[in-house]
Fold this sequence. Notes:
The structure is a single chain. This protein is mainly alpha-helical. The protein has a domain at 12-59. The chain contains three helices and no strands. Helix 2 (29-40) crosses helix 3.
Amino acid sequence: MSPLNSPRTTRGDIVAKIIYLRETYHFGPWKIQAYLKRYHDIAIASSSVFRILKRLKMNRLPNNQGYKRDKWIIRHYENPNPGHRIQIDVKFLERTDGSR
């Protein structure tokens, strides 16, 4: 049985910010922790953020709401000028004595 009052519990305003960031931007625990440190100067461990999300049953996002990293998104490059991205390496050699 957990105590009714815990002196070390996370403050309600911090929990409200965590909930807001999770629902609005779909951030994960690490990104929420980094955001709070950078913009609100709140130092909280990402494991604590995860525990808060898990306690509120917000630890899993639906598959269609997950954060997609940029490096996995395929970007196609097209330009109407054909052959404009061809790279040719040229090497100039000087003649040595006795060669044709």
